[in-house]
Amino acid sequence: MSDKNLHVAAAIIVRDGAVLAAQRSHGMKDGWELPGGKLEPGETSEDACRREIREELGLELGVLWPFTTVRHSYPEFGIEMDVFCAPVASDAEPQMLDHEALRWLGRDELLSVDWLPADLEVVRSLGLAWSDVFDSMHM
């Protein structure tokens, strides 16, 4: 990793057999990502994930299942990203409070958007483990 390392938490938000992809309205705005953000001092990954999703999408997350941790180096910084699976109710509608676009993607659509590199690693793993993830979450 580079000299500047960020610890972030992200959510694989699941609703009706689809995963939420988000495109930021600033920063690395051309790529798609799993929503989330940086941990604040003293904050756990789970707490950061819940806070970021509330701030970015206006959604309250219930149960979080740890999925993976990814380490990735971008040219300007490195990240360690703790990723959680987060089912939401069928009627849960995310708000675009911090994003330019949102899309719900089924398994066959996962690679239809241009994911940021760290998120792409997670999405590829999710595609391979799709049935296991959805069965374990009773989705």
From TrEMBL:
One of its GO terms (molecular function) is 8-oxo-7,8-dihydrodeoxyguanosine triphosphate pyrophosphatase activity. Pfam families: NUDIX (PF00293). It catalyses: 8-oxo-dGTP + H2O = 8-oxo-dGMP + diphosphate + H(+). Its EC number is 3.6.1.55. Its cofactor is Mg(2+). The keyword Cytoplasm does not apply. GO terms for biological process: DNA repair; DNA replication. It is an enzyme of class 3 (hydrolase). Residues 3-130 form the Nudix hydrolase domain. Keywords: DNA damage, DNA repair, DNA replication, Hydrolase, Magnesium, Metal-binding, Mutator protein. Belongs to the Nudix hydrolase family. This is 8-oxo-dGTP diphosphatase. It comes from Parolsenella catena.
